């Protein structure tokens, strides 16, 4: 695709919008394969591949949200084919989507037409206490609480050794993140949240309304932090409607 930072899991449509997806802490671009396949061929789904995982596992992971957002704002030029686009970020990815959009707006560069912000409360001036994990044991406990990976990973020392560098870096990044005050974005938001999320309440997610000068819609799904795994079709339909396209029912 002309950039190490993006992955596409299907053929890009000739026209239609693009959805750039930002994974959760410890996650990889492949987390969005189901959503990509559900939205195809109406939407060109492109997923961000952070350094330090999957085919970028030999690269050192980045442990700072600002540096990640700076780089992703630069890398968006690799996708600049004048196609309208939106951002979708889940959990840590929601923060990165938001911060990347802020940088694009500050640079007067083409920006997203909508932000889909999933599984994350609105930013605050101090780091979230839920993100304060200091040891590997605390990281693994946080992942278990969220239900974000299969138990086999925890039981396999080799697999665990492979994923821990990225997990450590991501939790350092999100654990140090504090919102820098600025004007609301001139972009509509769609906020998505599970009604049984163990770390984000519906009220905290609804607080994203204060960060957009445009309309903000909040959608609540049944399930926990990774509700998306069980509601891919519903989320795809919501995304398609917001982007003004029609998907094929499967």
From TrEMBL:
Residue stretches in coiled coil: none
Superkingdom of this protein's organism: Bacteria
Pfam families membership: Thioesterase
Assigned keywords, A-Z: Hydrolase
Thioesterase TesA-like domain sequence ranges: 20-243
Family in the record: Belongs to the thioesterase family.
Protein name: Thioesterase II family protein
Native source organism of the sequence: Streptomyces ehimensis
Upper lineage: Bacteria, Bacillati, Actinomycetota, Actinomycetes, Kitasatosporales
């Amino acid at each position: 695709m002309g950039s190490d930072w993006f992955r596409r899991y299907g053929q890009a449509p000739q026209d239609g919008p693009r959805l750039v997806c930002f994974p959760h802490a410890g996650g990889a671009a492949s987390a969005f394969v189901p959503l990509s396949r559900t939205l195809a061929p109406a939407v060109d789904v492109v997923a961000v591949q952070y350094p330090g995982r999957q085919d970028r596992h030999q690269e050192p992971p980045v442990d700072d949200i600002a540096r990640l957002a700076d780089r992703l704002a630069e890398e968006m030029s690799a996708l600049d084919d004048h196609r309208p686009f939106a951002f979708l970020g889940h959990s840590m990815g929601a923060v990165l989507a938001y911060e990347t959009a802020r940088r694009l707006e500050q640079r007067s560069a083409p920006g997203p037409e909508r932000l889909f912000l999933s599984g994350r409360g609105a930013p605050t001036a101090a780091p979230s206490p839920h993100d304060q994990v200091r040891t590997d044991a605390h990281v693994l406990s946080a992942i278990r609480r969220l239900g974000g990976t299969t138990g086999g990973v925890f039981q396999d020392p080799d697999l665990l050794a492979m994923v821990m560098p990225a997990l450590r870096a991501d939790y350092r990044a999100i654990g140090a993140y504090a919102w820098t005050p600025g004007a609301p974005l001139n972009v509509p938001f769609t906020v998505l949240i599970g009604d049984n999320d163990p770390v984000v309440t519906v009220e905290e997610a609804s607080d994203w309304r204060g960060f957009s000068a445009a309309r903000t819609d909040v959608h609540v799904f049944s399930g926990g932090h990774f509700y998306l795994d069980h509601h891919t079709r519903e989320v795809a339909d919501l995304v398609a409607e917001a982007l003004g396209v029609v998907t094929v029912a499967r």
